[in-house]
Amino acid sequence: MEQAEIGLIGLGVMGANLSLNIAEKGNRIAVFNRTYAATEQFMKDAGELADRIIPCKTIEEFVAAIRPPRPIIIMIKAGDPVDQQMELLKPHLEKNDIMIDAGNANFRDTIRRFDSLKDSGLTFIGMGVSGGEEGARHGPSIMVGGTEESWKRVEPVLTSIAAKFNGEPCVDWLGNDGAGHFVKTIHNGIEYADMQMIAEIYGILRDGLNMSAVEIADVFAKWNKGRLNSYLIEITEKVLRAKDPISGRPMVDMIVDKAGQKGTGKWSAIEAQNMGVPATGIEAAVAARSLSSFKDQREAAEKILGLPASGDHGNVDRDKLIDDLEQALLAGKIGAYAQGFAVMAEASKEFGWSLPMPTIAKIWRAGCIIRSQFLDEITSAFTKDPDVANLIVTPAFADMVKDTDGALRRVISFAALGGMPVPALASALGYFDAYRRGRGTANLIQAQRDFFGAHGFDRTDGADKHHGPWGSGLADF
Ligand SMILES: NC(=O)C1=CN([C@@H]2O[C@H](COP(=O)(O)OP(=O)(O)OC[C@H]3O[C@@H](n4cnc5c(N)ncnc54)[C@H](OP(=O)(O)O)[C@@H]3O)[C@@H](O)[C@H]2O)C=CC1
Ligand SMILES: O=C(CO)[C@H](O)[C@H](O)COP(=O)(O)O
């Protein structure tokens, strides 16, 4: 039998769909899954594409089915399973074979795996894939990290399966070792912030304006025709319209309000903190998911503390508030994306990647979960000024911040008075206000630090490492 050009391990949700996508684009592919029953089911469901797929029962069979030098995609549960799978594969591979981890790996693991294969003759690529089930099947956004030479070898097949935006493939090489997985992690961090802000706006429409799920769906449908046009807004509308087949009620009303998380949002926040770059939108979103999981505590606290009185809900101009909510969501998004790109800019320096900001924005325009019209505007801004300190000071985004600023303030005030939590939206406002204020309040913090710990401060008249006239600090008490 003719050998395959490529192999894929892991026929779960993503791997199965990616394999079909690869086969559909004319490639012959060998597949292997730890549990063979899944391979059998996959082949049954593959239809006409089964002719281009070689199902394999053992690793030996799988490796033999691929033409050397072999590109092998590993699309399995992230973490230890990837190390285990690599160890099982390694003895069967030959010089120049490439292992491509396409799961949501922590980029630090990717760097370790990349380094561990450096002198082995084998190559490692860490590749972020976004787009969920549908993206994997019909065109995901793909973020590649590894050597440029290894990228050149897999570029044709990855270009064939990636999503296209105005004909441009949403895949590119972003840098060495962990670059691709780092960018995917920040993609997910931004995804968390975007989803959290949409949920906060939904909360205001539901609890502040007492709107039904279907009424809220109509609002999102309208917004999806405007500047907020995006996949997440589109699916939010669909989710809100869906009916529970058991109770007949809106599906969303039947879902327990505890959000899961698998780690990428938390890693984004941790890495941002490690580098000292504020990513308050992502941090707020991760914390909100964690707080959501304390369902029992929240219910008990509501009994003890009650909910705040509903502010001026009765007097609110509903249409005006809905217009403000649209603007506020746009403002919040700008904050989250600006922070995500700032984190990537710093990581690029720290890890020596030269991450290409315009390219990252470009390959996120289609295929991935955060795809949107907005990302085309970010692409333009970074193409004009790839080294700008922050997205919000580019001319186009500075104008957007100024245009949406008032609405963001009004929405946060309304939510705060009514006791509706908006941590991610509020974090965006705090970020804008702190970032654009030339004279802040950290002078007082520096004085306090010097008072209790003799840490010193720089003086406004130019002298460095000065101490204040507070005597011996703690000894005064
Ligand atoms: N679902 C999504 O929307 C997205 C997921 N990802 C990432 O893609 C990867 C796969 O996710 P997804 O397809 O959703 O996961 P699924 O849960 O659908 O499938 C998991 C796959 O991993 C395999 N597996 C688990 N443990 C091991 C192990 N120890 N050794 C070998 N194989 C193992 C399973 O094999 P078996 O059948 O034998 O259990 C199965 O093929 C993950 O890293 C995920 O984070 C990335 C983007 C989007
Ligand atoms: O990578 C993805 C989307 O881009 C996956 O769906 C991921 O699982 C999302 O993260 P979480 O499960 O933590 O919400």
UniProtKB/TrEMBL annotation:
SMART domains registered for this protein in UniProt: 6PGD
Functional note: Catalyzes the oxidative decarboxylation of 6-phosphogluconate to ribulose 5-phosphate and CO(2), with concomitant reduction of NADP to NADPH.
PROSITE patterns noted in UniProt: 6PGD (PS00461)
Pfam families in the record: 6PGD, NAD_binding_2
EC number: 1.1.1.44
Protein name per Swiss-Prot or TrEMBL: 6-phosphogluconate dehydrogenase, decarboxylating
Keyword terms, alphabetized: Gluconate utilization, NADP, Oxidoreductase, Pentose shunt
Reactions listed under catalytic activity: 6-phospho-D-gluconate + NADP(+) = D-ribulose 5-phosphate + CO2 + NADPH
Domain 6-phosphogluconate dehydrogenase C-terminal: 180-471
Membrane-spanning ranges: none
Quaternary context: Homodimer.
Pathway where it operates: Carbohydrate degradation; pentose phosphate pathway; D-ribulose 5-phosphate from D-glucose 6-phosphate (oxidative stage): step 3/3
GO molecular function: phosphogluconate dehydrogenase (decarboxylating) activity
Protein family: Belongs to the 6-phosphogluconate dehydrogenase family.
Organism domain of life: Bacteria
UniProt organism field: Rhizobium halophytocola
